Amino acid sequence: DAGITQSPRYKITETGRQVTLMCHQTWSHSYMFWYRQDLGHGLRLIYYSAAADITDKGEVPDGYVVSRSKTENFPLTLESATRSQTSVYFCASSESNIDNSPLHFGNGTRLTVT
Amino acid sequence: GDSVTQMEGPVTLSEEAFLTINCTYTATGYPSLFWYVQYPGEGLQLLLKATKADDKGSNKGFEATYRKETTSFHLEKGSVQVSDSAVYFCALNTGNQFYFGTGTSLTVIP
Question: Residue B94 has what pLDDT?
């Protein structure tokens, strides 16, 4: 099916471990984004990418790494997970960066760091 | 800087009641405005959008009008249903970045 797919849906990991969240989109959208959603904070941008091999930091990038070797994939890696990174993570894509282009979201990954 | 402020929740309404969720924004340019809806366990889905002043976005009985003079984009629905229970997010996009409100939880009871 066309769309944006995140995996896994749920992940439990221990403090200090590396974990990678996957995001795949089938629309060939240029722009992709990672957000985290926390109660009281709404959605906060972690990283975004304008095209393959082009990435940039968002509002809360510390502790995260991204890559984009192919247009359709945008994995997010937590290099050494901390409890403060327990959150719901959403990947999103957009056709362009003009202001009326909407974001399309995946269903999220709920990450718990113990 | 650019930002969005939306009314605090949670909001609880009876079926067929009128819904208003307030949203105001601050932006240096002329942003596009959006409402997204999030059902339990799912990602955000675009509900409606408006791209310039006085535009009205509408979808599934929901409406919002882009009011430049009051910097507002309030979401309304004339008669809510149980299936409208969700979290609603107001957002703006200046072309550089999306800014989201913190979300308003709506519960509709039969």
Answer: 85
